[in-house]
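Input/output pair, single chain:
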Amino acid sequence: MAKTGEGESLGTAEGAVLGRATHTLHDEKPVLNDTWAIELLGPTTQVEARDAEHQRRLREDSAIDFRLILAVGIGSLRYAEDEVDRCAADGIHQYVVLGAGFDTFALRRGDVADRLRVYEVDFPDVQALKRKRIEKAKPQPGQIPTFIPVDFETMSISQGLAATDFDPARPAVWSWMNTIPYLTNEATETTLTEVARLMAPGSRIVLNYQGKVALSQAQIDYLQSLGELVREGGEPMKSLWTPEDFESMLTRCGLRTIDHSTESDLNERYFEGRKDGLYAAMPARLITAGPT
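Output:
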């Protein structure tokens, strides 16, 4: 229930897409120009998201500055999308989005619809709500992804993919963004082991995780407040990895690290020179990996 919300409260999936919608609507030169994000919100939230003054007041009245973590989320998705574009240019024709939530890549990227098939894996209730929102949207989506309902803690993704036209003998690009902190270490390792077995030579996966790294007191205080909020919302953070432990886990899963980036890399690539104060202020660890 936490992902899809309850009553007037937004779930985590909707909260994330709301952030992308307001960034696209109101920030100059969006890092991720997510023109479909607004379409996946409920009618009342859409009106509020379009109102720049309302959004400004919400930020001023909020006990926590969500833009600090929003930049990490947006930067991470841009990091993933850049890798997906590279893979598509190299002839990879399958894209699997793990923990897709209200991801909009397939919906807004009609320019790659004829050469990149998109498969979205997530909880059934999240996908059901997303499909309803797509049906009610006015713009035509660039592509309707293949929806694969899976609970990462209790289910296998292999059976879900087997029911589709996904071909494990052909290379694919995978992404798993902004989800791992909410899973146990065991669920993360089990899933990545399964993914590695499904990856043909030449495949890639891009993902991020919450790093156990040195923090400033301001970062410690912020993350404690954020943790309390998501826990109260019914979706507590469950995992924290040192970069060394995460790379070791990837090796056990059958994956090799190709790139291991940080929030500093996100800022250098995507947020440098911005005048609106939007930058990745919280710790972020992002990885591109391939099968061993």
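The radius of gyration is 18 Å. Residues 67-89 form the longest helix (23 residues).
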